[in-house]
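User: Show me a protein chain along with its predicted structure.
Assistant: Here is one chain, sequence first, then structure tokens.
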Amino acid sequence: MKNRKTVSLVLGSGGARGYTHIGVIEELLKYGYDIRSVSGSSMGALVGGLYACGKLDTYQKWVLGLDLFDVAKLVDFSFTGTGIIQGEKVFEVIEEMVGDVLIEDLPIPFTAVATDLIRQKEVWLQKGRLIDAIRASIAIPTIFTPKQIGERHLIDGGVLNPLPIAPTIADDTQITIAVNLSANSSKKYQIDIPQKEQEKASGMQKVFLQMAKKAEELFVREKTNTFDEMDMFDIMGHTIDIMQNAIMESKMAGYGPDIIIGVPNNACGFYEFNKAYELIALGRVIAKEHLEKQ
């Protein structure tokens, strides 16, 4: 194991691919890196916030233990037209894990990046209730309804900053490691998935599809690059990826991390949240691949 280095960790947005952040963090700790601060957008804010408050293991066990019946009970459809899911049931569970902790009381600095929908501005949430900051940052357009904090209506931080490096610039750490969930890589990774996990993922996908038909067929489908096979969500997922890649390139020109761990944007569809086991394992594999080069 190499010398222990202090790290500012930046966790990007990318929908379901955000589960890979869990595997990446596990490998960083395994390799002896000392994470001293975390900045994240969307799923990056969720995973980063849970790590910062010491509840990432609890969250991972919960996610991996979900079955189709659990998912069915957690999905609370919204009828306001501002998002398919209100997200209150999911976040009630997460709030039980996190508690009523404030960001400023966390053992390490944490920033959740969100987007002010009305003012069209990037917002850094660095104080206040951790659960509120996470909920705001992860309000993925079309999926979760926006989160109101004060007078602001906040949505997914990835809309304006999919890889928020800037909040870590002033950190007193040795290196900055950023996890990009939209890497343009054609490399294929073979992940060994137990039969039980494959069946569970398939079952959850089926129940999601059934529910989605009630919400004008908006749901997670296998990501496709063939236009004739695309549905509304496929197009939305591709659009978000294109937008975030363009923004990321612009942001990175000003603030470049020391190490970039890239997760291929074709690892799964943007909305395939039923593949937690596979994606967490993928995060471990990719992180190990990058860290062994250091």
